[in-house]
Amino acid sequence: METSQFEENEKSLNTYFKDSTNSDIFDQISKHNFMNDSANNNDEVIKNVETVVDQPVDNMSTKEPIICRIFAPCNDSSIESSKKVSEGTFFDMIGTSDKSLITALSSDYNSQIKLSSHNANFSAEFQNDDSLYSLSADIDSEKYFYNVSAGNLLNTSEGDRRRDAWIPSYRTRQALLAAAGAPSGTFTLDKDFLTMPGVVLQEDMVDNVYEAVNHYVDGVEAAQRKVLTFNDVTQDERGLRELIQAECYRAAVNLTSRLLTMYGQGVGRAGYSSQHTLHSIQLWFTRISLLVKLRSWSIAWAESEPWWDLDKPDLYFQFYSELYGGRPGTIVPFSFRLLLAELPQYVHKPQEAFKRLFSTLSVVRKILQNLNNALSEDGSHIELKDQDREESIKLWKCRETRILHSVINLAFQQKDYKLSIDILQQLIKNCDHEYGVYYYKALISAIGRIYLQLGDLNSAKVWFSKSRSFKSNNQGKNSNVDFQELINDGLLALSDNNYDKAYTYFQKASIKDPTNIMVKNNMAVCLLYCGKQKEAVNLLETVLSTNPTVGLHESLLLNLCTLYELESSSAKENKKTILKMVSKYKGDAISLHCLKLQEKE
Amino acid sequence: MISDVNLKAELQTSSQKLFLIDNRNKDLLKPKETLDEVIHHEVKEIGTHILICEVMYSTGVSFRKFFKFQVLKPLDVKTKFYTAESDDVYLEAQIQNITAGPICLEKVSLESSDYFKVSDLNTFKEDSCSVFGNINILDKDATRQYLYCLSPQQDLNSRSIVKTLNVGILDIIWRSNLGEKGHLQTSTLQTIHVDRGDIRLSLLELPNIVFLENPFHFKCKISNISDQEIEICINLEEMKNLVWCDISGKILQKIFPSEHIEVQLHLVPLGVGLQEISGIRLKDVTTQQCYEFDNIAEVFVLQ
Fold first, then answer.
1. For chain B, which residues make up each domain, given as ranges?
2. Contact A4 B187 (CB under 8 A)
3. What is the pLDDT of residues A171-209, one digit of tens each?
4. Which of A234, A440, A452, B208 holds its CA 20 to 30 A away from the CA of A307?
């Protein structure tokens, strides 16, 4: 039996016609959601790195490692300016933003369209980012809450123990016991037991914006670009922080290379033993986060290889008994662990990422089990006060949730929607009411968005209305909730090809949050699909001119440039104008793929 | 400033040419002004499609743009028919997702022809949940099997001369990323109506489990679906692990048109396990036509 007749709906057809460009656009809609919260603070990575540094307990600990404080100022300000939610956005941010980045790449790849399935990659991203954003936002807000409520009461060593606890493998435990027993300076270990990282990237990263301006515009214009390089800042953490704040990630990577060289972990030092400190590990963490942000995945991967499974004896405080005086636990921040666990997915090793996430999860669950069995985190018989035990359980539950979020994202990325939905449902079932109604609603709404992504509009509708039915009692959060609901409605209408209606919803959302780029981008896409291409361009250009620092966002630029290409032969000139703006307002972190400069050359 | 702008769009497939926009006119196009048009069209063919857009303006100046794209096959549909002794036809439709990502089958239905009444066997009777689980997703390369029971409408029960019967068409609607919709209809599915003559045999009673060397019996119904009186001779042929305990070659009572008789037959099992009942031969005494009934049922023999 052969099928004889095919019918295909307009949306896909449109896409064929416009070839890859259109898919990009469509993509954009999706990609944008992750920005939902970040739009307030244009600068994602800072938050990224800051979160990296900002372990839940860090705020309260007076004895936090120096690098941790690097980002402290911006951390505070972000809390003030955008409150919990936006602060939270980047809780898992490395994952978040990169996924959207991946999207951008894959859209080109996707241009060979199959009958009905091309939007796959990009729209997937949207979902992902979005659900992620909502999840992470909430988790982090809860983290914030956690800090505020309990933080200052803790004494430092208690906080240290709780935060740094980890369960070493048997082999590592034996080595640590031996190290503790040996007289100072006499203990050595075989290389197999040591973590020996080194910078792999041989040359400094260059400012691609400068290069592009020089190439596509002229040298005069390029010379006008003012951007920080690692030479412009102090050669320490303060300088690093400055670079990151200015979105000069490439320069920041270069600076980390230099700083790591001081630790004997610079270029070509992989495979040679060197001493780890809190500081050096934070530097590595920052560096690998930056590389991931910059989508230099293969380098990030190569440089991360000596680290996993983060269980060598030299990554525990006990290994350096003279330095840390018998303080227990691991030097590796939990977020670094999570980052390395997620990393393999970017180099097309999703199975490895799953493996790492689940092995991390199992240790975290073991720690929770210990805590519930009247033991300390690592299973030793230390007396814990009831309150301390509760705090520990809270923290480790929070970490368990973070891992599960990563698993959801990864599964989503792999289009294993069943797994994503399963875990989300587990999270909902075990949802701690402490996290607040908003988080709960966000989880439910995330399921709705996964259904939407997979094309099951009816189920999506069911979950959205389920989410809607939980009313938040906190008035302050209501506008945020409404916003999310409007976006949901908009996406639903969009999925139903009802672009007019979708536009109306996005417009309403935009009134609630006028600075939100994701919404603007979505509105532009709706306009395009309604045949109002000119208006779409105007809309995006207005966003750019009113708030260039926020507006010069990769996904918005990608859409705008796609529209330019659709519009006329002057696309090249228009793109140059945009490039000049980028050069004026942006650091070296931006990826210029979104301008699609090469294609037209 | 350009005057008399005229836009045409046509879609060329391997077999036909479709006009999507025919003469969209605009008298005057000011500088920087655009003429926007969104085309909607359902793609119904696979293979190469070429979209040709032609713009003519002013005094016969014109240019064309070509956009080429490939349409690949999204689903693979295979169907199988089983005709039961009761004349019910079971249709098994295998639907395989051969797109690049997971899809959600929003609707799969068999639009039957007038000959049959369809019952959909893809939901549980108790709670009408789908048999495919509560998340409606068909992963890339995955296959689902839908099952339908088609009962012939009353008038068809009598012998019909038609050999091939139109069963109907399968109508499939699916969605993928962000609700992107696809629609596929099969051509009319046909089943060959096996003309099994004037006599039907169907089972009325049969034990599920029997014991080795313990005789058991089963009851069957012999129907005459012709319009003449029939006299039948029953022959019982040898089987492997079951032996008949009846007289073979017996002539049964006459059956009037559209009526039936019930016959009880006896067997003794000589082998354990699942055993097939076969070997029933009914012969129309008048026409000498013989009807063979093999593998009509199975019993499980225990020791």
1. 2-71, 75-194, 199-302
2. yes
3. 999 888 888 777 766 777 788 888 999 999 988 999 989
4. A234
CATH number assigned to the domain with residue range B75-194, chosen from the 4 options 3.40.190.10, 3.30.200.20, 1.25.10.10, 2.60.40.1230: 2.60.40.1230
Residues 41-70 of B with CB under 8 A from A: 41-46, 49, 51, 67, 69-70
Per-domain residue ranges for chain A? 3-166+196-309+332-595
Q: Chain B neighbours among A 172-201 (CB < 8 Å)? A: none
Helix (H, G, I), strand (E, B) or coil at A37: coil
**Which residues in chain B have Cβ-Cβ distances shorter than 8 Å to A421?**
135
> Which residues contact residue B290 at a Cβ distance below 8 angstroms, ignoring those fewer than 6 apart?
B281, B282, B283, B284
Tell me the three state secondary structure of residue A565.
helix
Q: Inform me whether the pLDDT recorded for B155 exceeds 70.
A: no
A246-292 pLDDT per residue, tens: 889 999 999 999 999 999 999 988 888 888 988 999 999 999 999 99
Q: How far apart are CA A287 and CA A250, in angstroms?
A: 10
Please tell me the pTM assigned to this model.
0.75
Contacting A residues, span 467-506, partner chain B, CB-CB under 8 Å:
491, 494-497
Is residue B281's pLDDT more than 50?
yes
Q: Do B100 and A8 touch (CB under 8 A)?
A: no
Is A455 within 8 Å of B71 when comparing Cβ atoms?
A: no
Closest CA to B246 of B271, B263, B228: B263
User: pLDDT by residue (tens digit) across A358-395?
Assistant: 999 999 999 999 999 989 898 888 888 888 899 999 89
| Amino acid occupying residue A173 | R
Distance from the Cα of B13 to chain A's closest Cα (Å) equals 13
How far is C-alpha A426 from the geometric centre of its chain's CA atoms? 23
Domain range A3-166+196-309+332-595, its CATH number among 1.10.287.1770, 3.40.50.1820, 1.25.40.10, 3.20.20.20: 1.25.40.10
Query: CB-based contact (8 Å) between A428 and chain B?
Result: no
User: Is A4 close to B185, i.e. CB distance below 8 A?
Assistant: yes
3-state DSSP of A461-477: HHHHHHHHHCCCCCHHH
Per-residue burial over A467-496, b if 16 or more Cβ lie within 10 Å, else e, is bbeeebeeeebeebbebbbbbbbbbbbbbe
H-helix or E-strand spanning residue B90: strand B89-97
What is the nearest CA distance from A559 to chain B, expressed in angstroms? 18
Q: Is A573 on the interface with B (CB under 8 A)?
A: no
Residue B276 has pLDDT above 50, yes or no: yes
> Of A536, A572, A22, whose CA–CA distance to B34 is shortest?
A536
Give the CA diameter of chain A.
Answer: 82
Residues of A in contact with B180 (CB under 8 A): 9, 11-12, 116-117, 119, 455, 495
User: To probe the interface with B, which of A15, A16, A25, A117 has the most B CB atoms within 10 Å?
Assistant: A117
User: Which of B180, B168, B188 lies closest to B74 in space, CA to CA?
Assistant: B180
Query: Which of A6 and B258 is assigned the larger pLDDT?
Result: B258
Asked if A25 and A522 touch (Cβ cutoff 8 Å), the reply is no
B52 vs chain A: nearest CA distance in angstroms? 10
Please determine, for residue A335, whether its predicted confidence score (pLDDT) is greater than 90: yes
B177·A123 Cβ contact <8 A: yes
For residue range A91-150, list pLDDT tens digits in order: 222 222 233 322 222 222 222 222 222 222 222 233 333 333 333 333 333 343 333 333
Residues 97-136 of chain B whose Cβ lies under 8 A from any Cβ of chain A: 99-104, 106, 135-136
Question: Given A115, A417, A491, which is nearest B137 (Cβ)?
Answer: A417
- B199-302 folds as Immunoglobulin-like (2.60.40)
